[in-house]
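SEQUENCE AND FOLD
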Amino acid sequence: MAKRRRGSRSARSRPRRATSHRPFEELVADSLATIPMPFAAALDEVAIVIADEPTEAQSTDGDIPPGDVLYGLYEGVPRTEWGADWIAEPNRITLFRVPLEADFADPDDLADEVWLTVVHELAHHLGIDDDRLHELGVD
């Protein structure tokens, strides 16, 4: 299960622009709209969910150190692991609004981090692991 946790940002690939405080859902929609083809086509295979905070199971399932908080989470089977004889399992990217808004009070920083979290989690759906994302500077 792939995850993004608090304090794990290093890339700013999205152009910065003056952003006023906007609804979180709008930031997510804007982030999704910037994903280029053919990667954007993969969004048809993934549900995008916004939750206030991770559940206890989401927080404790995996290698999240105590005190860290998730910004986003990919749950499902990455494309690179699909098999013809598998039963379809829903794929989901969950973005956690409260931790993101708490850590990024500046509207521009929040917009950047939402975008980075969306890209990070979509990459997991495409089969890109955390080590490769780190090499690419998307962590």
Helices lie at 24-33, 56-60, 97-103, 107-125, 130-136.
